[in-house]
């Protein structure tokens, strides 16, 4: 008894079968054209209304009375004081956040210890606490009637309504950003390279500078850029602890608020254009760093 053998399908027949299957899969998973167009239209309208039009409005109002008025608003002594205080805050807060982010990410991803999940949750606290509430917390700690207020007054140390309070408020609001960028990146990379370096005799500093830092550099820069933008634009916590003293404790957002409340709209929008420029630059750098990080992960 012989078994009749079926002829194998040709390459053309196999290709047609595969194309029919793929077309059937596409028909099941793809949406109708009107659905795609509707979704794209909704996204475009939202982007135009919520992002593009406000940006156009800021620059149009800033230059509404001419370029001379725009420059005069930026050259005002109070505006310069606000810009310098904001830059000083960034210069202090961002490096501290970078150091904390590296230490926290290294601790969480390289070691096993009790309370690791609690530490991760505590890092996320500024995301869930209102900036205004954070400012009030520092007032309760370091204000005149706070826990440490009498001791600070006796020793002539001013924190609330002074630049140290602004630093503390901004630091609290921004410290998760670098850590939150580095933790998932370092978890994805694992510890194989570090273990290999240790077996070859590398010490802790060589391990950090030669292996860990090059692997995390794009994520670190990405977090620093976001932290910088957030520090420049912080309003809530800084508004509570600053006291709104012209030329002394006003940052750029607080100076913009004062100008707007005084109906100096052109000057307010002129100063606001600085933050818009920083935001646009942040988006460009953020996209570039994110692309570099993805390329590094695929190597």
From TrEMBL:
Keywords: Cell inner membrane, Cell membrane, Membrane, Sulfate transport, Transmembrane, Transmembrane helix, Transport. The keyword Cell inner membrane applies. Its main location: membrane. GO terms for molecular function: ABC-type sulfate transporter activity. InterPro entries: CysW_permease, MetI-like, MetI-like_sf, Sulph_transpt2. The complex is composed of two ATP-binding proteins (CysA), two transmembrane proteins (CysT and CysW) and a solute-binding protein (CysP). This is Sulfate transport system permease protein CysW.
